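Consider the following assembly input.
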Amino acid sequence: MSQDSSYSEGDLRNTGMRLKHDREWDYELDRIAEAIEEKDADTVGLQFPEGLKRRGPRVADDIRALVEERDLTDDVRVLLSGQPCYGACDLDTYLMKRSDVFVHFGHSPMKQTEKVIYVPLFSNVDVLPIIDEALEELTDPTEEGPLGLVTTAQHMNRFDEMRSALEDEGYEVKTRRGDDRLTHEGQVLGCNYASADVDADQILYVGGGKFHPLGLAMEHPDKRVVIADPVNNVVTVADTEKFIKQRYASVHKAMDAQKWGVIFCTKIGQGRWEDAERILDDNDDAYLITMDEVTPDRLRNFDMDAFVNTGCPRITTDDGPRFHKPMLTPGEYDAAVGNKPLSEIGFDTFHDTW
Amino acid sequence: MSQDSSYSEGDLRNTGMRLKHDREWDYELDRIAEAIEEKDADTVGLQFPEGLKRRGPRVADDIRALVEERDLTDDVRVLLSGQPCYGACDLDTYLMKRSDVFVHFGHSPMKQTEKVIYVPLFSNVDVLPIIDEALEELTDPTEEGPLGLVTTAQHMNRFDEMRSALEDEGYEVKTRRGDDRLTHEGQVLGCNYASADVDADQILYVGGGKFHPLGLAMEHPDKRVVIADPVNNVVTVADTEKFIKQRYASVHKAMDAQKWGVIFCTKIGQGRWEDAERILDDNDDAYLITMDEVTPDRLRNFDMDAFVNTGCPRITTDDGPRFHKPMLTPGEYDAAVGNKPLSEIGFDTFHDTW
């Protein structure tokens, strides 16, 4: 015990043991080990989303320990991606190209490819208690028609459980796999709610986050969206009013803009070139700016009156107020320059892969 | 006049005139126009350093006006790089690969290639008055031997003028082109002072910035470095004491570190793979992190006790205190882990291209 105290949690190199250290997630080390052996890999690239980056060193330790234990290859160099990562749209292509085995943790595949091992890292949070609580907010199964059910990638492993629990309560549960950008039936992304496009007037969203269900409610204004958050243990009903007001305010501020910066995001799954081109063709005072991370600091250097973001819609809506000038979605741009009425702006969603 | 007031400065599209708007720099539009015509370019990518990014839209306007006026091609799409840019080491390779003509402004070439048009944007500041003032800080030409002369890329166009002024005062002026990373004789970079490696006990540095001359003085501790800043109009003598103390403090803080993050920078001219590998081979508790922008925010996500930066040395030394854990140069790492004495750490410089 006293000897071990100098090692950090999950440090396996000095003991050759404890491979199963405490963790909430299954990093699927066996699958990674198999790929290393099969490809006789010299380099293994690991990419984690922001909230899990600190797990990287331990996973690297585990991989190196496995390589040694099982004598998979002579030696392996593990590279951790230090790039920000907010989704499967956001692969570190530099690292991917330079790694024999490349593992992307925490998101489900946006597009299947042999170059990437996706390890989804499903949450092990029990979803049944919060679904039980959500029943109080849902209208009676006999009164309203069917119920739509959606969730995020991290709770996808419990999707059948959710469905059964609702069916046991008498609901007809409608689900679908929205489009190609999504891996699973019932899955939603911050930029894609096509899985909620089912024949039901109310949708149960099971998952965390403030903005995901807001986007869902914006994208489906005809439906009532009940939010069951199993991590924070809260049930709420989505209310888009404040959000819509904030968006209208941004559009109004941008109406006087002369010079527009049109952002084309260079991240593999966040580029919408046709949207960017359409605006450039529409407006002689629009300038194309290419970048990967879209941040207030980077845009402050450009002398523009307003920006249109054709990249990740969440940056526009969630981070919008942090930018020094109004930041609009492509649809909001059309309202600001008078191409369409303000009442027609909807939520900006993303439907292709790459 | 009243009609024009609605146009921003340099907006040429609505007048077809005013191509020669006020500007401090020569953007070498003719050279760019020739390349557009020669390559029958559809896309032109422009990359500016941070301080000049706001000039981008005007230069884009000028280029489009020229294309139309001279009927160079059917149409051209101008793309502005929104990536941070701090040197010729920092080419936007994404934009470069996707542009028919790619122009990098504000830095001299680190490596000549047909893919890039480098437009150096020389300063038009008069350097003679500050050299005159600097004479008071320089020792008499008859007492000390020769005088070394160096400057930064933006004042390179006045280098012969500087040399003549000093020779007229009786100095024997020694200059050289340091190595392959530098374009010009007498040129220094924030990461390379090889041009000051001349047979002279005192060096006159003509240029701005606080850190460039400090690096110069650190790299050449045996020489007296006089700084003539023609932009801020100040003459000083480089004093490395405070800088050295700060570096020693960082090394001391890192001496207890168990887990080391070793940063490999993925920018085209900032990667030192061999240095990174050497440290990883030296230390089982070192983890390789790959990234382009090395920022405090990005590193905060990693649970490390200290970092070694094999990328841009200026980030380590100039921004070091902004990181949440000690950030060392490769040489300082060796001192922290006991591979060499603390007294032997020098300034971290960069001598290759790519």
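Chain A has a mean pLDDT of 90. Ask yourself how this observation constrains the way the partners meet.
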